[in-house]
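Ticket reopened. Same input as before:
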Amino acid sequence: MLLVALFALVSTTVSAQFYKPKRVAITEVVDKSGEMAEGTKTFIRSALTDAITNSEGYVGFATICFVSLEVDFDKTGNISSSTLTYVEKQEGDYILVSEVTPLDKRTVLLNARIVSVSDGKIVSSSSVRTVADIDCLRSACNQLCFKLVGAI
Amino acid sequence: MSRRLYTLFLCLAMLFPNIAKAQDFNIFAKQRVVIADIIDMNDRPLSDAIKSVVRTNIIEECTNSDDFEVYEVNMDDIRQQIIADGQTPSFANICKAIGSSADYINFTSIKASASTIGSRNVTIFITCSLYRIGTASEILVHSEEAEPNSEAISAATSNLVAKLIGTKPKTSARKYKAYVIDARVRR
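Engineering reply: fixed in the latest deploy. New output:
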């Protein structure tokens, strides 16, 4: 009886450790061309946050302003070690850096990479080509998150 | 007896890759690489979209490969730190600043055959150079040509990364030296 109770206690503790959701900080969307509308970029960021949060074992949060932490972040998408340390202090496990590139008048290339805050390693990277309207963008963000989270 | 031997062999087979990784044996450990920003060699710079497609595709191909793992390094930040320390941001100093956090740094340059991208028969030359951070020396150079559209550029960068993986040095410093000579001869 005592053994069963001990086993139940250990398994609960172990499962709690395994099922602790990983926190992913979603950055502002990088647009090197400067041609994308602010509304579209905001939409992509929130769609990515939703998609990450709806992935099992992950929670997305978009409360950190990366533009204020990094010089020209919206044009470069580069993350320095001080920003990684800052996000780690905010109890983040990963950073999702997304980038939108207009290919022609209708099509955009949506790219995202997940960076581990502990060592700066890019754990997964993927891109999706899509039409730049709201429905297609949401579907592309879901597809992108599915690929990224599946690769971790 | 044979079952015990089998179990022992299985345990060793399971443990060996982990030991090798911990000891940094190159046959199992991935090469840690930093992807620098794209260098535009044209008089009239190409569109940021092209450069963005090249860089993101290289990051994606390297990250998803079995040979490389990519690390996030802000080169501008490193340059500023070197200047703040009163030194010149030379390549050797950049390599020293990156230090042991990566093994290689990849520089990619792009050059168009004609300055007006809208014109016909324009070819874009993409060149990837892999440098070893420990010695600040160039070890591999590969080039690809592409038409100025995103599909062709993606395919060319995928080929480039495949070439880098196919010819990357695997073991000793003596081999790295051989590659340096080889790369210079090819030029």
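Chain A touches chain B at residues 32-34, 70-71, 76, 78-82, 84, 99, 101-103, 109, 111, 113, 115, 119-127, 129, 151 (CB under 8 Å). Chain A is about 45% helix and 25% strand. Please confirm and we'll close it.
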